[in-house]
Each structure stands twice: as C-alpha cells, then as structure tokens.
Amino acid sequence: MRVAIVTESFLPQVNGVANTVRHIVDRLVTRGHEPLVIAPAPGPGHYGDVEVLRVRSFDLPRYRSFPVALPDLSVERRLAAFRPDLVHLASPIVLGAAGLRAARRLDLPTVAVYQTDVAGFARHYGLRVDPLLARWVAHLHRRATRTLVPSHASREHLEGWDVPNLHLWRRGISLDLFGPRQRDPLLVRSWTGGDPSLTVVGYVGRLAAEKQVRRLREVAAVPGIQLVVVGDGPERPWLERHLPGARFTGLLRGAELARAFASLDVFVHTGASETFCQTVQEAQASGVAVLAPAAGGPLDLVEHRRTGMLYPPEDASLLRSHVGTLAASPDLRHQLAERALRQVSQRSWPQVVDELLDVHYAAVLAPAGHAGHPTAA
User: Fold this and answer.
1) A GO molecular function for this record (predicted)?
2) C-alpha separations of 39 from 98, 122, 263, 301 in Å
3) Cα distance between residue 293 and residue 289, in whole Å
4) Is the full-model pTM beyond 0.85?
5) Straight-line distance from the first to the last Cα atom of the chain, in angstroms, rounded to the nearest whole number
6) CA–CA distances in Å: residue 130 to residues 66, 138, 189
7) 8 Å CB contact between 254 and 277
8) Could you tell me if 300 and 340 are in contact, meaning their C-beta atoms sit under 8 angstroms apart?
C-alpha cells in the first residue's frame, strides 16, 4: 500500500502533529508499506529511507518555531507521480487544504485527522479570526472521506459544524520509553536541593500562550512544592521573571524527557484547549499523578480521583487547592498513578497505528468506503 501523508508539521519541529506522523511512518515501513511525507520547509528531504517533499513556508510572526506551508503546485504533481492508494491529512489547515484539493482531483480517498484547535490557538494570540478559522477547518473535514478525532470533546466540536463520518482515534504512547523505572533520585535531589519535604510539581510542554502557562504562577504559590518547568517557547522569558523559584530544564527529548517525567511527583497541565493532551498520557505512563483541566481531551484521559484529578479551568482557587491536596497526600498520588498506569498500558504506538491501518484506512479503501467524495458544504 502506498500512503501519502500531507502534514502541517514534521521533523525537525517537535509537537503532537509531527510526533504522530513520525510514528505512523515508522509503522507503515515496519509493515512493508510505502509512505511519502509532504511537509513544510525547512527540513531534511528524507526521514530514514522515506522521501519528505518540503514545501516552501513562512514563519508565524509571534510563533517562529511553527512554519506554515504555502499552497504549492508541487503537491499535486508529486501525488500524481507517487500514485498513492490514499492520502492522509494530518491536522489539515493550509498545506492540508492543498493536499485535499489534489486528492479530490486525482480521485483519491482521504483520511483527515483533527488534531489542533487552530481557532483556539489564534484566540490565545489575540488574532480575531477564530470564527473564520473554525469554519475553514470544518469545511476541510466535510470534504474528506473520513475524519478521525482524538477525543469525545473533539467529536462534539466537529459535529456542531456538521462534519460527517467522524471516528474516534486516540494517540499512542511510547511504552518502551516512558515508565516509572526512569525515575532518577539524583535528578530529584538537584531540583529540590536535597530537601525531602518538597513535592516536585511539574509542567511539561510548549511554553506558549495557547497552553495558558502563565497559570503556573498560581501553582507556584502552593507551599511545600518545588515547581519544575520542562520545555521551551515564547512564554519562557515571562515565566522566568515571574517564577524565580522554579527550575527550568529547557526542551528535553527522548531518554532525558522520560527521566524528567518519571522524576516528578505531580504533573500539572494548564491549557484548556487541548484536543487530546499527549503529555497527560506520558505522565500517566511514567507513573506520575496527573492534574488537568476538566475540558477537551483530558476528559477522556482522566477520571477525577480515580486516574488523576480534574479542575474547572476557570477556577484558580481549585487549581491551587488540588495541587495542595496532591502535594500533601503521597498515598493518593500513588493510587491515582497506579490506576492510570494500568489504563495506558494498552495504548502503545504500534497498537494505535495498526488500528489506523486495519480499521480506518481499510474502510476508505473498501469499495463502499470510497463511493465518491463528500460534497462540498
């Protein structure tokens, strides 16, 4: 099977979309299929033995680490030459729109994955185009053969825009990388200064406005904790000024990231616009108690006081209160972490991508699944 993956982001960018595409490509190759990746420049023209067609792009003015591809005729030309069995659209917005248009002209089935709340992203950056962006994203998904959503909240969102043929497809977790075994007492000691009375509370992710990371100032006010911030982004200078007692690790990857995750006592997520929230899964797989907003993707991943704790995203007092409760209750942290670890142990990336291939790809490739394209809305 030949699969063309048109993605809004790919390596060397580090984010949920790029990471998911990487795992899909790896599994396709392992199973003997032939993928092609079409992604924004800059970046290498190959990922292993897989071709990556790079399309010219520009940097967002306030988010320069996220290049946005420009519509390019090379997309349709390369798809026509590659002759894929289907086109996978990873979080389609701009480049994905070009890929969708080309696929429809070539009469190719499409699987579109909704992964980024671009309207919410724009709203957090003060761009008054969020209704327009929401309509545009819904328009693209209405024209795809099948749309995959990562959570029930995402499904409800797209149903509200009359997007048909929605199917739940969650993200996987690298269980060979993340785990409680990665906990490092020396790292914990370096964070706490050797003070065993401190509970290590950490945030892991992009330090950006859409993640609402300035709420970490509320977390830092809880007594008896050591706040650790793992990641990088445009909000880091503000956080460093306002959180003088926090430890900042910068961007971590691979084994270093797994070690940092497992060395936390509590993981706190601050963003309320997550379609899934992969870092919640990674914390759970690391054996760490999770506190997340009761909104969006975390609602599918965290059952309050069973596999983690949830707080109303608008309630600062409850955010602080729940951090304090977890900091003071090692037994509660252990119980929450243990149940969550059992829950995520069945979500390896190979299992999740096999579901993509054997269920969702198979459905659009079947004669009944590809009876023409959905009409434009």
Assistant:
1) hexosyltransferase activity
2) 11, 21, 35, 30
3) 14
4) yes
5) 30
6) 18, 12, 44
7) no
8) no
